[in-house]
Amino acid sequence: MIQDHGIPFSATATGAGTVSALVTGTTNTLYFVSDIAASSTGTMGTWAVLADSTVLWEGSGAVNYHFSEPLRGGKGKSVSIYANGSTSMYANISGFYLSF
After folding, report:
1. Is the pTM value of this prediction over 0.85?
2. Cα distance between residue 89 and residue 83, in whole Å
């Protein structure tokens, strides 16, 4: 079967200090990240968007960003957003995936 459109995904993490919102990769799946968000009620540190351990995009401070050209994870790789800061943390990653 040929897939003619992407299937949406989203993952959110909350907690204190360091959080990671992860979408686990599976064989024959390719994730595209279209939106990220990270914030803290206290001091916001750094954040990174990852495909497994490969950094796709990184920065510091609060972020709420839409990629007009989505970031492409690798075939079968997990995608995640990792964020650190103080007190109450929030991180979200979303986009779509293709199965083949």
Report:
1. yes
2. 8
